[in-house]
Amino acid sequence: MNALTPADLEAIARTPVVDPPEWVRVQLDTGGIAAGAELVYGALAAARTERQLSFALLRAGSVGYSFADPVIEVQDAGMPRVLYGRMNAAVASHLIDEHLLAHRLLDDHIIATRQRGTSLDTAVTHVLVRDTSGEGSRTESLQSAFNAELKRQDLGDRVQVVRALDVGIYEQGAVVQLLPGAVTYANIQEADIALIVRESIAGGRVLENLRWQTPDRQKRIVLRHCGEVDPDSLDDYLRRAAGYQALRRALFEFTPEQVIAEMKTAALRGRGGAGFPTALKWQLTRAQPAPQRYVICNGDEGDPGAFMDRSVLESDPHVVLEGMLIAAYAMGASRGYFYIRAEYPKAVERIERAIGQARERGLLGDNILGRGFAFDAKVRLGAGAFVCGEETALIASIEGRRGSPTPRPPYPSVRGLWGMPTAINNVETLASVPPILRHGGAWFAGHGTPTSRGTKVFAVTGKVRNAQLVEVPMGTTLRQIITDVCGGVADGRELKAVQTGGPSGGVIPVQHLDTPVSYETLQELGSIMGSGGMLVMDKTDSMVDVAKFYLRFCVDESCGKCAPCRIGGYQLLQILERISRGRGSASDVAQIRRICLAMQRASLCGLGQTAPNPVLSTLRYFNDEYKAFIEGGPAYVRKISRTAAPAAKSADEARRVPAAGETASGLLAAKS
After folding, report:
1. pLDDT band at 492, cuts 50/70/90?
2. Alpha-carbon gap, residue 54 to 21, rounded angstroms
3. Chain-wide mean pLDDT for the chain?
4. Which pLDDT tens digit goes with each residue over 68-123?
5. I need a labelling partner for 336 at 20 to 30 A (CA). Which of 304, 319, 367, 424 fits?
6. What are phi and psi for residue 534, nearest 5 degrees?
7. What is the DSSP letter of 483?
8. Structural domain boundaries enclosing 646
9. What does the alpha-carbon distance between residue 416 and residue 512 come to, in Å, rounded to a whole number?
10. Rounded to an integer, what distance in angstroms lies between the CA atom of residue 616 and that of residue 596?
11. Calpha distance 156→436 (Å, rounded)
12. What is the distance between the alpha carbons of residues 592 and 265, in angstroms, rounded to a whole number?
């Protein structure tokens, strides 16, 4: 296959995307596959052959709705384009008959679009209904009421009323979305039904007093093509996602210094946890005189319940590779490595395929796009150790040595892989680079807060109604993420706290959930941004047990190289074990604080320095629980053991068997 040229990319950019009129797209990421997406794909293929149909059967990664896996998307001529969730092989076969042949949507599986309309220029063909109070027990009666009114106004044959699985609006009573315009009404009363049918469905007029006008909290930049592009196809990335247009622009419209300046304008900070300015890291690496420079993508995601990096690598691998190419051009690097944990085989497979496709089309190798720029990349499997997320331990692992941290300085930007200047960026950071180059640094900086620009991807898990990947502008509050995007606490329970940053982060109580999310605000609360894990807890969760869980993980994952982490962590765990059994003493709390201080000040790397965070934050906000364990003794422990319940896993994580060592957050202070 011939190498791509700048003229080829320009021609692709000018060519409109034309999809077949009928297609079904199955989301085949790890979470979806674990839930049965491959079986769904097979059932759709078999039904297509059996019925001699011609619709296109497409593949994609995940849009992020883990709570609804497996998820598919359907486009049928003359029908609204819709997402279906919680599919299985039997329902998939039924979908062929109903949606593609009878042109009727399926009840109880549709996920309503969050891109809600403001006008009814096209005649309404379908009405999605959902009772968002509690578990939606009144949805069927709402459907019946609309059907009765449509029949009364002689519209029953023209409009189908469909029960939705999720409408993206919560605790707002009856919610209705009119398709294909996606105008959405909330807090619908019985008297409003006749009005909606007469004015909106029959008359095409929007009822502004009923319309849900709160905009979608999410702003997708990193996840913008996840669930749409075929991760196994370079051509699909080129055509559907304007792939490698940012690279073309970097090579032909920018000098390396100007690329770095654009990153500075964007104020992009490392999304691995520390928040170090990306432009400064690239600039420091470029400034070092050396015969060779390296760029590394840190995909060693080990967070409990976190799947941000995995999902991006599996769903849009070429965007991360394109980001690496742009970074390499800016820094003068000619070699790159994707360091991906071995427990992510699908991510490894898709990145390796992307590298091979890019090399075949001349986007890797010598003289890329005829510009004289040479770069190549390889994949290295993570050693299965949490500590390998730390930069110097990661470098040691790539070099074939034991993955343990070394003192800094010198920093990797000065002396990194094989002694050469090396820039290490995490998956989300690199995935942010192409849209910045395409739309401009000022555009990216227009999202977020003055000190934390852009968006952040979070994997929201735990006691939450709809566990999923979300991407929101910096400055969005914790409560908005949990309540407005994810539907609040599962089973109608009362929210107690949110833990951010994994083992390196802290626990934030409910009274601080209106805090805007940024690097600085979370640090003020005793937590950190981290790589994006967010665990929701309800009133049944014991904060002492939460602190003990994260600390045990850090003890297990410590490399043992420095005494403050190795010994201090073990001592802390023994004290917490004693307290949680009702055998603690009043002096234990003071001892905990002394050990935590020593670990923070004297540990060699981020693991030991941040391991005390969950303990200190729970002491800060839930000191009464520690006191109750100590003063109540074994009787109190027996009492809470009858009411406490373990934190729920996300829909994504509950369906897969965790690999050895895969239980906690990345080294947030180092995963940049």
Report:
1. confident
2. 10
3. 91
4. 999 999 999 889 999 999 999 999 999 999 999 999 999 999 999 999 999 999 99
5. 304
6. -145, 110
7. I
8. 455-654
9. 40
10. 8
11. 48
12. 43
pLDDT of residue 136: 56
Q: What is the spatial distance between Cα 666 and Cα 271, in angstroms, rounded to a whole number? A: 11
CA-to-CA distance for 398 and 89, rounded, in angstroms?
A: 42
Residue 666: is its pLDDT beyond 70? no
**What is the C-alpha to C-alpha distance for residues 520 and 282, in angstroms, rounded to an integer?**
23
Q: Is 382 helix (H, G, I), strand (E, B) or coil?
A: strand
What is the spatial distance between Cα 28 and Cα 61, in angstroms, rounded to a whole number?
5
- Is residue 124 in a domain? no
Helix (H) or strand (E) holding 128: strand 126-131
Q: Tokens 């110097």 sit at which residue?
A: 392
Pairing of strands 56-60, 23-27: parallel
Is 26 part of any domain?
A: no
Please provide the DSSP assignment of 211-246 as one string. Answer: B--PPPS---STTTTTTTS-TT-HHHHHHHS-TTHH
Helix (H) or strand (E) holding 195: helix 190-195
Residues in Cβ contact with 384 at an 8 Å cutoff, skipping those fewer than 6 apart: 341, 342, 343, 659, 660, 661, 662
Please state, in angstroms and rounded to a whole number, the distance separating the CA atoms of residues 659 and 382. 12
Residues 6+ apart with CB under 8 A from 657: none
Domain with 617 in it: what CATH number?
Answer: 3.10.20.600
The structural domain count of the chain equals 1
In a domain, 13, yes or no: no
